[in-house]
Amino acid sequence: MNPVEIKNLTVAYQKKPVLSDVSFEVPEGKLIGIIGPNGAGKSTLIKAVLGLIPKASGEIKIFGKNYNAKDKVVGYVPQRGSVDWDFPTNALDVVLMGRYGHIGWFKRPSKKDMELAMECLRKVGMESYSNRQISQLSGGQQQRVFLARALAQDAKIYFMDEPFVGVDAATERAIVDLLNELKKQGKTVLVVHHDLQTVKDYFDHVILLNMRTIAEGPTEDTFTIENLHRTYGGKLAFLEKDRVMVNQK
Amino acid sequence: MSDLNLLQMILYDANTQWVLLGTMLLGIASGVLGSIALLRKQSLIGDAVAHAALPGICIAFLLIGEKSLVALLIGATITGLVAAYCIQFITATSILKEDTVICLVLSVFFGFGIVLLTKVSQSPAGNKSGLADFIFGQAASLVGNDVKLMAGTAFILILVTSLLFKELKLLTFDPAFAKGLGLPTKFLNFLFLTLLVAAVVIGIQAVGVILMAALLITPSIAARYWTNSLGKMIILSGLFGAISGMAGTLLSTFGRGLATGPFIVVSATLLFFLSMLFAPERGLVIKWMRRIKYNRKTKEEQILRTIYKNLEDCYLKSGLEECLVTTNAVASELAFSEKLTLTILGDLLKKGYLTQSGNEWSLTNEGLFKGYLLVMKQRVGEICLMHREEFNEEEQDQLTSKVIDKPTDPIAERIIYLLDQYNMKPAISPYEGKGLT
Predict the structure, then answer these.
(1) Cα(A58)–Cα(B13) distance, rounded to whole angstroms?
(2) Which CATH number fits domain B287-421: 2.30.42.10, 1.10.10.10, 3.40.50.720, 3.30.700.30?
(3) Is the CB of B228 less than 8 angstroms away from the CB of A50?
(4) To the nearest whole percent, how much of chain A has pLDDT over 70?
(5) Which DSSP string corresponds to B343-358?
(6) Is there a contact between B392 and A50 if contact means CB atoms under 8 Å apart?
(7) 20 to 30 Å CA-CA from B12: which of A68, B156, B254, B414?
(8) Which of A229-238, B69-78, B158-167 has the lowest mean pLDDT?
(9) Domain named ABC transporter: which ranges (chain A) (predicted)?
């Protein structure tokens, strides 16, 4: 059974559709890039799957069932800018939030949860920052804290919204290592991604999106100049530059 | 009667003790909920809810015709909740921004409340009812049963908040993630608003509808200055709320019949100013002192670097290790006044980094170590910036100490290689014997 199956998903803000008739399914245990121009509805797609915004029509199946957050199969890494980093808390505490779904109502995190959260911080190379107030972390470090929080969720499918945006070299490496480790564990990871140059290096499978699914499939077959052309439309100068790049890889 | 005796009499009065207990619990509850409201950027909703309680109080009075606190508070709760949901509903469904909506709801409800209050005071039963006390608060008019109601509610509010601490924290920090975890965010949001309304409603008798919001906001912003942990912030905020509640009640009782609300707010504001000025870490005084210290340190480092670079230049040009730098050269290079330059040079001399001969300066052995370290750090930083894909600028300090202490480490070797390539390696190293590099 495929971890994610989407049929004819349409999402609209007011009356303007942002996604129309999006359909795709993704194989289990792969790293999947969701690629498309600005405003193509990439983040909207993730939010709709997670039920954060309502859909106008269509079907979303997670392992063959309707999505229910309580099943704890889906982990989410939102865009870094979506929260107020001046919130009074430290890095370890944010990671612990990933455990809240497992801890249950009224209870406090146990020592085991703390250890697990520390382990997740270690996996993103941030264990020495566990006590750091989150506003004092750099952008890349904040992104890594968000990734550690998703790890602590211990989900089967992960959705990540632009984790590579505005991060330093060390964070980029940490994220790539983490993606590969997740893949090794058999998890399915869907990543909204911007940088066409790294697509071939990072992802096994791509979904090209521009309001609708333009193409989807294994990266070698799908990430082609023709498909990119259909996704990005008339931005020729930009595509010319990338043609060289796509051919090189 | 002396003031002291009066104070003693007030403190031994059974009713006053009840009132003090009530305002203390009220202070804790509103401090606790106010902290969360502040972080959720909902402080102003508390203000609107408080003002919106007035029409509820008047309607309840008009309906039953007597002043029973329970009935009045039920009325206040209903209009308060209606106002809170109006704000959320209008914000979600119209193009108006939340601040506009809050303003609109607050003024409409409060205006309506004042109209009703005028009507009440014109009726024969009404003009002695003391409903006007609800505007600025009158703690002294609380009787035993009122206080029990207040205290009981405050206790429940504190209990619910502590039980749901974890959930409320996540809801406040990252609501989308909370929803992704399967938390019932809509229910929690509703519950929190209800708790907030309850805190406001039990406070209006003592503090009054106009100033109630201050008891939500002021203790929590004061507490925010002292800590970076939400748990500690909430506890401190409750403590500040309790202190202001009790202090305000005592002061107003002391003055016989003075409104309580303003005194509570003044006490809370005093705590806020003290926190803003003197809190460690975030307080203005500490920040200001730290800034001055940092600026001074920066200037000292600039001067040490300048002297080092001058010595380096001199060495590279003439091969001489024992050059001297004039005060004027340092001052003009850094665009410092001569007076400032001399002061800082004097400080560095006292610290043992410099040697002075008249108007000319050079580095001591210790100064050479320091100057070398500072220049190295600056140049390693530049290498990090030039080779962003290889090195992380944030790790500049660790990289510098690696280059100095463990030059055989592969990363250090690479940086030393690059420094050589760009001719940026500090020429006079105290580690390799002066000038032997």
Answers:
(1) 70
(2) 1.10.10.10
(3) no
(4) 94
(5) HHHHHHHHTTSEEEET
(6) no
(7) B156
(8) A229-238
(9) 4-236
Q: Is B155 on the interface with A (CB under 8 A)?
A: no
Q: Residue B202 in contact with residue B153, Cβ under 8 Å?
A: yes
**DSSP 8-state symbol, B42:** -
- In this structure, CATH architecture of domain B3-281: Orthogonal Bundle (1.10)
Q: Reduced to 3 states, what is the DSSP secondary structure of residue B212?
A: helix
pTM: 0.85
Q: What is the mean pLDDT of residues A161-177?
A: 87
How many angstroms separate the Cα of B183 from the Cα of each of A103, A171, A176, B200?
A: 12, 30, 30, 26
- State how far the Cα of B40 lies from the Cα of B173, in Å rounded to an integer: 8
Give the CA angle between residues B39, B41, B46 to the nearest 5°: 105
Asked whether residue A64 carries a pLDDT value surpassing 60, the answer given is: yes
Residue A172 has pLDDT above 70, yes or no: yes
Going from N- to C-terminal start, the domains of chain B cover: 3-281, 287-421
Q: Dihedral of the CA atoms A95, A97, A100, A106 (nearest 10)?
A: 130
Both tokens of residue B209? 């509808």
Q: Are the CB atoms for A163 and A136 separated by under 8 Å?
A: no
Cβ atoms B170, B183 nearer than 8 A: yes
Q: Does B166 touch chain A (CB under 8 A)?
A: yes
Largest Cα–Cα separation, chain A: 57
Pick the closest to residue B39 from B186, B227, B208, B179 (CA basis).
B227
Read off the amino acid at residue B357: S
- Inform me whether the C-beta atom of residue B163 falls under 8 Å from chain A C-beta atoms: yes
Q: What is the dihedral of CA B157, B160, B161, B163, to 10 degrees?
A: 160
Q: Has residue B1 got a pLDDT over 70?
A: no
From chain A, the residues in CB contact with B94 under 8 A are none
Tokens of B272: 């806020």
Helix, strand or coil for residue A223?
Answer: coil
B160: closest chain A residue by CA:
A106
Chain A partners within 8 Å of B164 (Cβ): 105-106
**Among candidates A68, A107, A50, A182, which has minimal Cα distance to B177?**
A50
pLDDT digit string, tens, across residues B350-399: 999 999 988 899 999 999 999 999 999 999 999 988 887 778 777 788 88
To 5 degrees, how large is the angle CA B173–CA B174–CA B179? 135
Sheet holding B325-326: strands in order across?
A: B325-326, B360-363, B354-357
For residue B130, what are its two tokens? 């003391």
Tokens of B37: 């409201």
Question: Which of A58, A13, A62, A65 minimizes the C-alpha distance to A39?
Answer: A13
Averaged pLDDT of chain B: 89
Longest dimension (CA), chain B: 104
